[in-house]
Amino acid sequence: MLAIIVTSHGEFSRGILQSAEMIFGKTQKVVAVPLAAKEGVEDLVSHYRLAIQEMQPNDGVLFLVDLWGGSPFNAASRIVAEHPDQYGLLAGLNLPMLIEALALQQQPLADVIPHLERAAQGGIRHLDLQMDTGDDDLL
After folding, report:
1. Total domains present in the chain
2. Is residue 10 part of a domain?
3. What is the pLDDT of residues 20-74, one digit of tens each?
4. Does residue 132 lie in a domain region?
């Protein structure tokens, strides 16, 4: 089973994981690791290593982070670089991405990452009331 670390600036990671579990159900080998205001990359690296040790992953680790290039991303990229065949990293965390990740924990990491990219992008949509879609269920 793929272990998942959900991480963000502040408490967003805890909140989105709580929301995902409301929809998906209770999870295994998934942990939220928030970045506190006075913490930095080195603190996160330590938090990540502890989370990995506690989850004891058999099939790899997937980091889902809020922003490309932010501290959670930079800390995770260090750890992923140490285990590039077993660990993966995706930025742009959103709820559709996380729910799909939970549903795909039994799949190989190499298959999960491209699927999650599509799920995250597909979760971004807009409501255009000017366009007649023929779907009367919208309102």
Report:
1. 1
2. yes
3. 999 999 999 999 999 999 999 999 999 999 999 999 988 899 999 999 999 999 9
4. no
Half-sphere exposure of 106 (CA within 13 A, CB side): 1
Which residue range forms the structural domain that includes residue 88?
Answer: 3-124
Nearest Cα to Cα of residue 57 among 83, 96, 23, 19: 83
Domain membership flag for residue 120: yes
Q: Using alpha carbons only, how large is the chain's radius of gyration in Å? A: 16
CATH of the domain at 70: 3.40.50.510
In tens, the pLDDT along 104-120 reads: 999 999 999 999 988 88
Q: Examine the pLDDT at 138 and tell me if it is beyond 60.
A: no
In contact, 47 and 17? CB cutoff 8 Å: no
Cβ–Cβ < 8 Å for 33, 50: no
Rounded Cα gap, residues 31 and 6, in angstroms: 6
Q: pLDDT value at position 134? A: 59
Contact 6, 21 (CB under 8 A): no
Alpha carbon of 73 to those of 21, 29, 87, 107, 130: distances in Å? Answer: 23, 20, 13, 23, 39
Of 100, 63, 57, 56, the closest CA to residue 80 belongs to 63
